[in-house]
Specification:
The protein has 190 residues and is an alpha+beta fold. Helices cover 23% and strands 32% of the residues. The protein has a single domain, classed as Alpha-Beta Complex (Peptide Deformylase).
Length: 190
């Protein structure tokens, strides 16, 4: 089932997600719905807070970065994973900028500086524990989705000037004044 994606301004995007266990109700159905929702919106990652669920769960399929005409030097094709109760243990390496966007913040793309390498512990959908190191675009996508389960958005990394420049766009998104080709849920007006 394709779920509506929560828009910028909804409080769920600013809350740290709760850990879950194997008994979380209908977990596999939720994960399946997240995949379907992400693909429907042409995303490469989706975190549970983006569908209104305040839990520490995100999915990634970085194959969306691979252009048919280019060689997949970073091994992104087939990099499809579920992350449950993830914890980034370490971030290191050269910091580099990359133009990021977010399904919850449509029509806004900005350069974000992040470390090139991470070490992350997480559980997969079968609750097997993993402790892995990633770099490059894999690390970038994981960091972006991981931020969502911590209540952080990519716009938080922008300079005060950039934030002022995009403030109008962000206000319009929170008011539902944006056109997208996927289902969205906008914050209720006060």
């Amino acid at each position: 089932m394709i779920l509506p994606i929560v828009a910028y301004g909804d409080p769920v995007l600013r809350k740290r997600g709760e850990d879950i266990d194997k008994d979380f109700p209908k977990l596999q159905e939720l994960i399946d719905n997240m995949w379907e929702t992400m693909y429907s919106a042409s995303g490469v990652g989706l975190a549970a807070p983006q569908i209104g669920r305040g839990i520490r769960l995100f999915v990634i399929d970085a194959g969306g970065f691979v252009d048919e005409d280019e060689e997949d030097e970073e091994g992104l094709e087939g990099f499809k994973k579920v992350f449950i109760n993830a914890e980034i243990i370490e971030e290191d390496g050269e910091e580099w900028a990359f133009n990021e966007g977010c399904l919850s913040i449509p029509d806004v793309r900005e350069d974000v500086v992040r470390p090139e390498r991470i070490r992350i512990k997480y559980l997969d959908s079968d609750f097997n524990e993993h402790d892995e190191v990633y770099d490059g675009l894999k690390a970038r996508v994981i960091q972006h989705e991981y931020d969502h389960i911590d209540g952080v958005l990519f716009t938080d990394y922008l300079s005060p000037l950039r934030k002022r420049i995009i403030k109008g766009k962000l206000n319009n998104i929170s008011k539902g004044k944006v056109s997208v080709n996927y289902k969205m849920r906008f914050p209720k007006s006060k």
